[in-house]
Amino acid sequence: MNAVFLIARILFALIFLLSAMGHMTNAAAMAGYAKFKGAPGGKAGVIASGVTMGLGAIMVLLGIYGDLGALLVFATLIPVSFFMHAYWKVSDAQAKQMDRTNFNKNIGLMGGALALFLLFAVTNANLGLTITGPLFHLS
């Protein structure tokens, strides 16, 4: 069970770690794209979302207050989904389909983040292979 939980955390965190690295290494280009999509914050917003998703992913991966890390990932996905993948605003059919796919993927990842939050908080991280227990304790 411990190994399965660790593998799940690695697989979940990987997409956010890679995205966070992209946010940090290509912040200027991403800021231009964010502006094109109508997202607020410019380069600072790109960096903030990169830091938030990266930190959350590391917390989930390592099991350092994994419940809080899962909430950070969830919170980052909300504005990213609605600003960057607002497919209902796109007129080009191909671009609309890409945004719809990414929006739907993010909705699924939000569900996964909430499930991980609950798993950490309810089990008190008794699934093993974590550095700390959860910040929140639910029963």
Automatic annotation (TrEMBL):
Localization in the cell: Membrane
Predominant localisation class: membrane
Membrane spanning residue stretches: 46-64, 71-88, 108-129
Keywords for the protein's UniProt record, in alphabetical order: Membrane, Transmembrane, Transmembrane helix
Bilayer topology term: Multi-pass membrane protein
Record InterPro entries: DoxX
Protein name as annotated: Putative membrane protein YphA (DoxX/SURF4 family)
